Amino acid sequence: MSDKAEHRRLNIKKSFKEQLWLPPHHEIDHRGNPILWKLEDRWWLIGLGAGGSQDTSYGLKVSNLEKELCDLVGICGPGQIPVAPPPVVPGTPPPPPLSIQPPPAEIFIPTESPVPPPVVPQPSPPAQTPDPMLVPTPATIAGMPSNQPEAAAPPPTPPPEPSPKAPPPRAPSARRGKEDEEKDDEYEMDLKRKKEKEDAAMYEDEDTDILISKDDYWFSGIDRNGDARQPTGKLTPEENTERLRTCGTRTLDRPSADGKAFEVREDSFQKWLSFVEINNAQNRSATGGALGTMISSRHFLTSSQVVMNDDKTWRWNSEKVADCVSGQNHLDVPDEILGHTNLFFRVCVRRTNSFCELTQQIEQSVKRAVILNYCNHRTQYFDNTQAVMVAEVVVDHTPNRGFPCLVD
Questions:
Q1: H or E element: which one contains 389?
Q2: Where are the beta strands (DSSP E) in 296-387?
Q3: Where are the beta strands (DSSP E) in 206-269?
Q4: Is residue 305 one of the residues assigned to a domain?
Q5: Region Disordered: what ranges (predicted)?
Q6: CA spacing 20 to 30 A to 197: which of 25, 28, 140, 213?
Q7: Lowest mean pLDDT, pick from 193-202, 203-212, 226-235, 299-308
Q8: What domain range is 312 assigned to?
Q9: How many CB atoms lie within 10 A of CB 251?
Q10: Residue 400, domain member (yes or no)
């Protein structure tokens, strides 16, 4: 058994719906190793090692996880990238049906000098004899003959002369003192306190609990120490597009031409090949592990054997895994177990080996892990192969690390 990871070229014996059968190459309790395929100068991840029998090594197909990875972590194939439909411009609704044809519509366009409408002469009314109308005059009102001359109009009333006395001057407004300004400040502060009390009372009346969860705090961009963090969670469409552009471009240092194994050099796989381990609760030593393959700037694929035994008990505390509920498909790894799960960038298989102790390692914490399709695995298959687990680390890496593409 080698102390370092190795890579070799093998032929696929058989391909089934969920599995690949390969010539025997696995070692006891070794799962999660990447099965790569080169096409058009790119490396594609087609499966993960899943143990095997004496004459056959098994691999779990990655192509079966296309929808799951797209839904859970935003790692989508070219045909899965959602494209927003073009905006629909609402058309002018048709007019309601009319029983009578409406007259042509007139369009009024305002101008600077609008032309007045033409004057249409109106027909003259029939001639009528007007009734005599009495026009009152001063003579008839005073009982005098109407042929008397009219009295002269009274002279206009002269305007009032200005008063020789000037009005008293207006008293100047009282000057505001410092005490008045302080009173205004106190009044504004009272209004502010009153507003705060009203807002607090409004939330107290709500029948809703407001909870800031660990995930909300983590996704806010600030970690528990107050330091700014890089993006985490599902890939954005832009990040996934960048992943598709840069994946699979790193060349292996010594690709084997036959089944002979070559040890993995640090300058070959160290950018995207890792080892995932978990400790146990008794002595805090490593109790489970598997190789992990980077598939995005912050996501890795590995085997569920990192956190779970073949008998479906947790490696951390040996407790039985809870049964799936109706409609459940995937299994989220509990936070208690994630707190003791770490990912290492190194080329050695055993951390206790002297070579590994001398090799520089980059250790990262696992933020989230999901065992894909755990609830749909048949027990006899799970005992032999376990399942694929996707893990998310807390530190975002640059996309151009040469990790393989995912076959779809």
A1: strand 388-393
A2: 299-303, 331-332, 341-345, 362-371
A3: 262-263
A4: yes
A5: 86-200
A6: 213
A7: 203-212
A8: 6-79+231-406
A9: 11
A10: yes
Number of H helices, E strands in the chain: 9, 15
Cα separation, 312 vs 333, whole angstroms:
12
DSSP output for 265-317:
PHHHHTTTEEEEEEE-TTT--EEEEEEEEE-SSSEEEEEGGGTB-TTSBBTTT
Which pLDDT score is estimated for 95? 52
Phi then psi for 371, rounded to 5 degrees? Answer: -85, 115
Number of domains in the chain: 1
68, pLDDT greater than 90: yes
DSSP string, 2-35: -SB-EE------EE-SSEEEE-S---TT-EEEEE
> pLDDT for 167-195, tens place per residue?
555 555 555 565 666 666 777 777 766 76
Residue with tokens 């690709």, as numbered in its chain? 255
- Indicate which CATH number applies to the domain containing 323: 2.40.10.10
